[in-house]
Amino acid sequence: MLNLSVSALRRVLWLDAASGLGMAVAHFGFSDLLSEWLGLPLAWLQVSGVIVCGAALLSGALASRAHPPAAGVRLLAAGNFLWVAASVWAVWGAGLALTTLGVVWVLLQAAFVFGLAELEWAGSRQAQRLAVA
């Protein structure tokens, strides 16, 4: 079982916030181009941009705390796990006409988000232990 210190958890949360805001900016600022390159519907890019922006704001709020609350970190991690499941569904279950680049992009970002979720979940256990102590 992976143990993550509070300082390491905060770095992971900051990474999640920064990467999420970058993704949201890309989805909002370049949605037409991304839709063409990836084969994702424009509406999907815009809605996912809103979702990612909200998650990034939550992640940043948690990271800014000296001791991020375990429940908040678990909520974020659970949302990230749901994002991964939705990404896999988008590739293989949604019937989208993704380009090859689109398939690769969606699966790569899903793998990155899965890694963040795993680290956040591990860090939430340490945050919970600190809260009890």
Can you tell me about this structure?
The chain is mainly alpha-helical. The chain has one domain. 83% of the residues lie in helices and 0% in strands. It is built from five helices and no strands. The model has no long low-confidence stretch (mean pLDDT 93).
Provide a brief overview of the structure.
This protein has 133 residues and is mainly α.
**Residue windows where pLDDT falls under 50 for at least 5 positions:** none
Secondary-structure content class: mainly alpha
- Gyration radius, in Å: 16 Å
Shape: elongated
Q: Could you state the order of secondary-structure elements as H and E?
A: HHHHH
What is the total number of structural domains? 1
Number of helices: 5
Distance between the termini: 20 Å
**Largest sheet at a glance?**
none
Average pLDDT reading:
93
Number of strand segments = 0
Q: Percent of residues in beta strands?
A: under 5%
**Percent in helix:** over 70%
Keywords:
133 residues; mainly alpha; elongated
SSE arrangement:
Elements: H1 6-29, H2 31-38, H3 42-63, H4 70-92, H5 100-132
Helix pairs in contact: 1-3, 1-5, 3-4, 4-5
